[in-house]
Amino acid sequence: MERLLNDKVKDKDSWKGITVIVDHIDGKINPITFELLGKAKELAEKSNSSLYAVFMGHNIKNSSMELLHYGVEEIFIYEDSELKYFRSEPYTSCLEDFINKVKPSVILSASTVNGKVLASRIAARFKTGLAADCTTLDIDESSELLQIRPTYGGSIMAEIITANTRPQIATVKPQIFSMPQRNEIPNGKVTSCNPPALTSGINILEVSKKYKEIGISEAEILVAVGRGVRTQRDMRMAVELAEALGAELAVTRPLTEMGWADTSRQIGVSGKIVKPKLIITLGISGAIQFTIGMNKAEYIIAVNTDEKAPIFKLAHYGIVGDIYEVVPHLIKLIKGQEEV
């Protein structure tokens, strides 16, 4: 594991508390915010720190009350018509104002488009470190945030510590952390903040809603295909298995690079993180670049000709065999065309 340290000295003692940036669209909170709150609460309890949330938008006060069911001690709200739609300059100005007033030691952000923009701009303004797409977060006795993320294409897991500057900033992809349990009784307070002067060089002329499809991130059952498929035409075999199971098709990175599937179906470090109830992997060896994206599935079934393939160490059930022989039998069994 590689450890990276920055070298700019800055007074750290006055920086306290852990903050989650609320990710939302029109006040509807993104589920990853609750996932981050669950992890942030663990870190706060371990370091005896306060847990904050900062919520920026328009007409969001009612939505913010839901956060009080997840252990937030104080929610800082910035409301303004200029914050109705996300624009980097106004949102960053509000977040900068919050940081200057509260001085949190740790800031966690969703690794969404908006979250990445905010995190990177704040890191630049405060000349501090930022670890993107972390897969593990912990905190030590000195309140140093241990940020672990894959690097060099997933071949190395880097442990990053922002040792000498504050705040410590990390972004996390959806479904890395589990959704915490919701407390029936809310606890904490909401603080309304006066936004600073909000200016932007961007004018929003029109907003259209994107049609939401059920993708691999939301699917309960996945059939994932790797290099064991010899030709693009043979992908049809995996598609047929997925259709028989009512599953979504997923792939590894090499298949998207060859143009056999869209990148929206890619699992792994450079793709999607998934947590289905069941995933069947076909011809996938199980390199860490892939398994990071699916190792929290409830059940994993692997089919591979190599009995020593790493995927079998992760799988709950394994079939050592050729997918060209195994998959047709599975399809017939599922369709009731063949007996066990």
Polypeptide structure, described:
The chain has 340 residues and is of the alpha/beta class. It has two domains: 2-193, HUPs (Rossmann fold); 221-334, 3-Layer(aba) Sandwich (Rossmann fold), CATH 3.40.50.1220. The chain contains nine helices and 18 strands. It has helices spanning 31-47, 61-64, 88-102, 113-125, 235-245, 253-257, 288-291, 311-314, 323-334, and strands at residues 2-5, 18-21, 24-25, 28-29, 51-57, 74-79, 106-110, 130-134, 136-139, 145-151, 156-161, 168-172, 189-193, 221-225, 248-251, 278-282, 299-304, 317-320. The chain has a seven-stranded parallel β-sheet with strand order 8-12-7-2-5-6-13, with helices on both faces. Strands 15-14-16-17-18 form a five-stranded parallel β-sheet. Helix 8 (311-314) links the parallel strand 17 (299-304) and strand 18 (317-320). Helix 3 crosses helix 4 and helix 5 (235-245) packs parallel to helix 9 (323-334). Residues 1-7 have low confidence and may be disordered.
